[in-house]
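Running log. JK asked me to keep both predictions on one page so they can be read side by side. First protein, sequence followed by its tokens:
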Amino acid sequence: MKKLLIGAVAAITLSTSVMAEEYDHNQPNETAIKILLMSQNFTDEQETLAIQLINQVQILASKVEDPQEEVTQFVQGLAEQDYIDVPQIMQKYRAWQQDLDTELEKSLTTVAELHSSMSHEQRTRLMKTIKLLQSN
């Protein structure tokens, strides 16, 4: 019952951000994350890996989301150009993709390490919590 209550509080906090005075919707609430991790009965090592994973996912998400404005302006500017330098565009794209691949590999490595350290019961409990959070 205690675990369910802690999980519910974490879910509510994550979804409403009531525990943060200045809430950035692009960043998870640190207090809510700590409560969520407590509800999972993680070891110190697992908690460290989970926090590391959360940080890596934030970096990965920002690498996908941040260039959107730049890409929009670039596409709008193409119509005004006399020449489109396809190799240069592809070079920039490949560099961005390589950076994204590097961050994704870091995240997947952390996921694999966390997964291998968790018991079946921990994985089941974590998936139930994630489903609860997604339903809000």
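And the second, directly underneath as requested:
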Amino acid sequence: MRTSLLWLFPGLLLGLILLWLQGSYERMRVLQMQVSQLQRELDTFTPPQAASRPPVKPEALPQVYTWLVRQAEQQGLRLVRLEPQDAMARLVLEGGFASVFQFLKSMERPPFALWVERYSLIPTVQSAQELQLEILVGVEIQR
């Protein structure tokens, strides 16, 4: 009796594997459709700040970097590092929470076509009262 039922085990196992694969395939198809939809949205996305200001001429990029540094200094932040890139600028700043907040608020209405791509805040090693702000700023450059 036992040996006659043993032939069912491989078929049952194969059936379970096929069900699992079918479910995985369906989940993958749904994820691919979602990624395609997000890509279409991303292709048509214009950053809000960049849309409200004219693009920056390439020769005016030093003025943009100067403006960013002055905004930080006016808010009482220390510039640790400035790394200009093509259409981006990475700044590392240190200061108190209120200074960081005011700097980020000043980025809401810049005189140039720029936007905050991303930022991170971490407490500095020297003091728990101070924060280190690493911010990546995008600049729309006139072509």
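Observation for JK regarding the second prediction: Helices lie at 2-6, 8-44, 48-52, 61-74, 97-106.
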